[in-house]
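Figure 6 in text form: structure in, sequence out.
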């Protein structure tokens, strides 16, 4: 009878990229609010890179804007329309608008439309970050944080 100490197939496997594993762990352990922020971060990154590539590499611009569109679609479908009320309705309308602007930017190769999306996405990301910070403070005040008393 053989006893395996480690059931994790990535442990000790040199073919697994450590950075990729770090990213997988980061996503798997993130709170729902942090996942939203991570989606914003990635969408913003894709838009910034697409904007830099305009006039240089149309295929790269297209691929990056498609990724940003997919992320915005994910943000849209993740909205809880039942509990979110007016806020969810407004966010959904804004996400649909942002998606449309990215489609237009992609078709027209228009950096100004990408910049408009970036401005809105950065503002929304900052709002979610603030909500996350306030949520963390509330958890700490309610004793849900680490016990620092020894």
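Output sequence:
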């Amino acid at each position: 009878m053989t006893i395996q100490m480690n059931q994790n197939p990535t442990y000790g496997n040199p073919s697994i990229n450590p950075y990729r594993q770090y990213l997988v762990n980061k996503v798997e352990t993130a709170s729902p609010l942090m996942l939203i922020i991570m989606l914003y971060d990635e969408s913003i990154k894709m838009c910034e890179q697409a904007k830099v590539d305009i006039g240089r590499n149309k295929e790269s611009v297209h691929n990056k804007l498609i990724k940003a569109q997919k992320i915005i679609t994910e943000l849209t479908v993740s909205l809880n329309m039942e509990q979110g009320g007016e806020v969810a309705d407004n966010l959904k309308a804004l996400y649909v608008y942002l998606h449309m602007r990215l489609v237009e930017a992609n078709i027209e190769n228009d950096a100004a439309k990408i910049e408009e999306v970036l401005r809105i996405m950065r503002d929304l990301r900052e709002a979610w970050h603030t909500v996350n910070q306030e949520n963390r403070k509330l958890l700490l005040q309610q004793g849900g944080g680490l016990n620092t008393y020894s």
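Caption detail: The chain has five helices and no strands.
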